[in-house]
Write a sequence for this structure.
């Protein structure tokens, strides 16, 4: 599907529900876009490729079963002050460069509960 990353949330949700695109395909499109552009714009501190692909596979299973919430299969990113278990949370600060939280923030847990897909942690002011 051409220019899938330019579609709005409602369009993406509809495409996923109708199974015209899979969450895995959508996730790969966004990961490719990040890889193409991020060196130039420095939007991401951490890209969670493995986790994103795992989330997408779960979302696709939920969608096939007619389950999942309103955001099922939809990619999202969080600012780098939001914890994601096993991934650095630096708040864009060198002082926190080695902090890897043993838990994920409630907001992430809730989004995953809906079947959403985390792409990574975005840059911010220190």
């Amino acid at each position: 599907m051409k220019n899938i990353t330019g579609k709005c949330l409602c369009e993406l949700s509809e495409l996923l529900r109708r199974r015209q695109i899979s969450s895995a395909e959508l996730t790969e499109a966004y990961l490719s876009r990040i890889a193409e552009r991020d060196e130039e714009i420095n939007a991401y501190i951490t890209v969670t490729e493995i986790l994103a692909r795992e989330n997408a596979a779960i979302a696709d299973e939920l969608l096939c079963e007619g389950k999942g919430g309103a955001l099922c299969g939809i990619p999202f990113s969080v600012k780098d002050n939001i914890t994601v278990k096993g991934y650095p949370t630096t708040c864009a600060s060198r002082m926190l460069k080695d902090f890897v939280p043993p838990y994920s923030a409630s907001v992430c847990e809730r989004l995953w509960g809906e079947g959403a897909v985390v792409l990574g942690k975005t840059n911010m002011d220190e």
About this structure: The chain has a mean pLDDT of 96. The radius of gyration is 15 Å. Helices lie at 9-17, 23-41, 49-64, 106-114. Residues 23-41 form the longest helix (19 residues).
